Amino acid sequence: MERLLVLVRHGQSDWNLKNLFTGWKDPDLTEQGIREARAAGRRLKELGLTFDVAFTSDLTRAQHTLKLILEEIGQAGLPTLKDQALNERDYGDLSGLNKDDARARWGEEQVHVWRRSYDIAPPGGESLKDTAARVLPYYIQHILPRVMRGERVLVAAHGNSLRALAMVLDGLTPETIPTLELATGVPLVYRLKADTTVETKRVLAAA
């Protein structure tokens, strides 16, 4: 049984390009983001990977990325489940602010803590721990059972919602998770063992 799970962070968004905190705001992909999503689809196709079901968030940039990937692998009609549980971390009062302006206002160290710590939330927003508290139950209830049944599952989501998943899959701790960076449009191909732990992981970075 294959037990295939592929995670992809959405391609570059308009607000990524403008260096803005995005969170639950809903900008679409840039032209570069569109190219990244299509390239991700091509790399999956080169490996001969197809899917039985896809999951994505409630936000346009992740849905658009998924749509482009599925077009590239010839599965445009794939059954897809969308849920806010997979949304990006909510940056609260930082949402829409330029990251450099935020550093000028609150200081480099404080902004770094908000962005990269595990359990410290920005004002009015979520910490990574808070994000994991909604992502992981959804994964356990809806995504993992399909993988364990042998369905090939594709998830297109966001940097922090996928970091929460990778924390579990890769066995990271609150101390080591801040070092994990997920590039836009780069598929992470996991194959799981019968006990739900990772058998193999492959990062399909651009050549």
TrEMBL record:
<feature type="binding site">
    <location>
        <begin position="22"/>
        <end position="23"/>
    </location>
    <ligand>
        <name>substrate</name>
    </ligand>
</feature>
<feature type="active site" description="Proton donor/acceptor">
    <location>
        <position position="88"/>
    </location>
</feature>
<feature type="binding site">
    <location>
        <position position="99"/>
    </location>
    <ligand>
        <name>substrate</name>
    </ligand>
</feature>
<protein>
    <recommendedName>
        <fullName>2,3-bisphosphoglycerate-dependent phosphoglycerate mutase</fullName>
        <ecNumber>5.4.2.11</ecNumber>
    </recommendedName>
</protein>
<keyword id="KW-0312">Gluconeogenesis</keyword>
<feature type="active site" description="Tele-phosphohistidine intermediate">
    <location>
        <position position="10"/>
    </location>
</feature>
<comment type="subunit">
    <text>Homodimer.</text>
</comment>
<comment type="function">
    <text>Catalyzes the interconversion of 2-phosphoglycerate and 3-phosphoglycerate.</text>
</comment>
<dbReference type="InterPro" id="IPR029033">
    <property type="entry name" value="His_PPase_superfam"/>
</dbReference>
<dbReference type="GO" id="GO:0004619">
    <property type="term" value="F:phosphoglycerate mutase activity"/>
</dbReference>
<feature type="binding site">
    <location>
        <begin position="88"/>
        <end position="91"/>
    </location>
    <ligand>
        <name>substrate</name>
    </ligand>
</feature>
<comment type="similarity">
    <text>Belongs to the phosphoglycerate mutase family. BPG-dependent PGAM subfamily.</text>
</comment>
<feature type="binding site">
    <location>
        <begin position="9"/>
        <end position="16"/>
    </location>
    <ligand>
        <name>substrate</name>
    </ligand>
</feature>
<keyword id="KW-0324">Glycolysis</keyword>
<feature type="binding site">
    <location>
        <begin position="115"/>
        <end position="116"/>
    </location>
    <ligand>
        <name>substrate</name>
    </ligand>
</feature>
<feature type="site" description="Transition state stabilizer">
    <location>
        <position position="158"/>
    </location>
</feature>
<keyword id="KW-0413">Isomerase</keyword>
<dbReference type="Pfam" id="PF00300">
    <property type="entry name" value="His_Phos_1"/>
</dbReference>
<feature type="binding site">
    <location>
        <position position="61"/>
    </location>
    <ligand>
        <name>substrate</name>
    </ligand>
</feature>
<feature type="binding site">
    <location>
        <begin position="159"/>
        <end position="160"/>
    </location>
    <ligand>
        <name>substrate</name>
    </ligand>
</feature>
<dbReference type="InterPro" id="IPR001345">
    <property type="entry name" value="PG/BPGM_mutase_AS"/>
</dbReference>
<dbReference type="InterPro" id="IPR005952">
    <property type="entry name" value="Phosphogly_mut1"/>
</dbReference>
<dbReference type="InterPro" id="IPR013078">
    <property type="entry name" value="His_Pase_superF_clade-1"/>
</dbReference>
<comment type="pathway">
    <text>Carbohydrate degradation; glycolysis; pyruvate from D-glyceraldehyde 3-phosphate: step 3/5.</text>
</comment>
